[in-house]
Design a protein that fits this description.
Distance between the termini of chain A: 51 Å
Number of domains of chain B: 1
Strand content of chain A: 25-35%
Number of strands of chain B: 6
Number of domains of chain A: 2
Radius of gyration of chain B: 15 Å
Oligomer: heterodimer
Largest sheet of chain B: 4 strands, antiparallel
CATH architecture of the largest domain in chain A: 2-Layer Sandwich
CATH class of the largest domain in chain A: Alpha Beta
Strand order of the largest sheet of chain B: 3-4-5-6
Distance between the termini of chain B: 24 Å
Number of helices of chain A: 4
CATH topology of the largest domain in chain A: Gyrase A, domain 2
Strand content of chain B: 25-35%
Number of strands of chain A: 10
CATH architecture of chain B: 2-Layer Sandwich
Structural class of chain B: mainly beta
Shape of chain A: globular
Helix content of chain A: 10-25%
Chain lengths: 191, 97
Amino acid sequence: MVETAIKKVSPLDGLAGPVGGNVKLTSNGFVGKVIIRGDSDNKDFVMAVKDVTGVEIPTTALTFNEGETYSIYWMGPDEWMIMTPEDGEVALETALREKLGETPSQVVNVSDYYASMRLSGPAAREVLKKGSPLDLHPSKFKAGNCTGTRFAHATIFMVQRDEEPTYDINVRISFAEYLWNYFVEASREFG
Amino acid sequence: MLVIKCPFCGERDQTEFTCHGEAHIARPENPDELTDEQWGDYIFFRQNIKGYQYERWSHDHGCGRWFNALRNSVTDQFVDTYKIGEEKPAIPSDEGK
């Protein structure tokens, strides 16, 4: 029998990272991503998501909730992204669909649509400032916030994890190499 | 550079947004009864006001939602932005300016 195991390929494979120690850039690998849409005023919808993921849907704009296995990110007033460990996305998608049943909602597995990378280190904010129009000052955007925005020519979905600062950045895979190299280039002056 | 207030995400740079023209255009109730000219007016003709006008905008690179705005097309001043379905803000009087 022919070996049919699928080898996963990331657009970030083999790319060189920043040289110095003030900016770290790493791939988040094949973290699973599922988009869910629904009405957060509908108790059936909210409960179903809570039952399956163990995490409350964040209804405050630009925030996220983390659980043991899953984390849920606010993307819009009726849209959230759920992140799962690698290879957890199909099981989550199936479980959500089953649980939600006829409840008005939409569940889409977008794991292969976004590449995810982590930008961190003392100069990470300075690097982001070079291409983002967002006000990144800690009084406006801090740990616990997430948002869709732009970086240079790429539309990104960005999460701030901690005050180091550490950012997780999700970008459409066709933009991943461009964004990565932009970060590396922008990091140069910080060593 | 303009700063526009998304009703969901707060103040953001203009490059995250797209303007989609005049807002509050009601679709005719009985399209079958309209003449071609009336239908053409509905589809194509906009007021293009010089001054304050109500517009549709979308926060493409943010939450992706559509909303309405009251903007002065001469000065680019955004008087207010509001969610679809909410009552439109009053046009400010420019007296005394």
